[in-house]
Amino acid sequence: MYAAMRRRFGHQNWWPGDTALEMCVGAILTQNTNWGNVARALTNLKAAAALDLVVLHEMPPAKLAELIRPAGYFNIKARRLKNFIARVAEDFTANLAAFLNRDVPQLRADLLAINGIGPETADSIILYAAHKPSFVVDAYTHRILLRHGLAKRRYGYDAIKSMIERALPQDAELWNDYHAQLVAVGKTHCRPRAICRGCPLQRFAHDEHKQPVRR
What are phi and psi of 204, to 5 degrees? Predict the structure, then answer.
């Protein structure tokens, strides 16, 4: 399946961002919105010279919320960003590299302990910003696997993540592009109402009418 997707879409070079901090911020901002809105919020932060841990830590929440307004839910996301930044700034002397450079289980547990960071955001930070193998599961992933008979409707995040990680080599670069390929299929073809014609996964047995349980 991966080979078929890669032949169709090419290497995705995901996650966009010039620095690990930008990727972390983007992962938090992308909750419940699309990447275009996140990109606009990141542009605002860059224009304000605010993509810096110390600057973000010292910035008043109201100012941060205004800068990230394009990402939606800006007051909530400003608090979540502040929680993440405070953890790195106060406990790791604003050294993001030191925060990220830990074993995956320890790093993931620490991220999940931060108010406002859930499994998908934590795994995105680990995989893309820390370059460590922790597979990201999103709605596209569950829908594609369900329709191809590789997951059950009842499967939650951890069950799908565990299944994928057991099946693939422990390779962060592979997992990075694999997740990006699934997103490309999900956006282009495996929508709530499937467009199977031309899908790189069409030749694999599937049932386009299956839908994951809403959570």
Answer: -85, 140
The answer to whether 138 touches 144, Cβ cutoff 8 Å, is no
Q: Decide if 92 contacts 74 (C-beta within 8 A).
A: no
Q: Return the structure tokens found at 201.
A: 């996964």
> Alpha carbon of 139 to those of 132, 156, 196: distances in Å?
22, 11, 17
In the chain, the percentage of residues whose pLDDT exceeds 70 is: 99
Residue whose C-alpha is closest to residue 119's, from 161, 78, 70, 84: 161
Contact 33/72 with Cβ under 8 angstroms? yes
The answer on pLDDT for 30 being more than 60 is yes
Q: Which of 73, 76, 70, 77 is nearest to 46 (CA)?
A: 70
Q: Decide: 139 and 212 in contact? Cβ < 8 Å.
A: yes
Kindly tell me the sign of the dihedral angle through the C-alpha atoms of 133, 210, 155, 119.
positive
Report pTM.
0.94
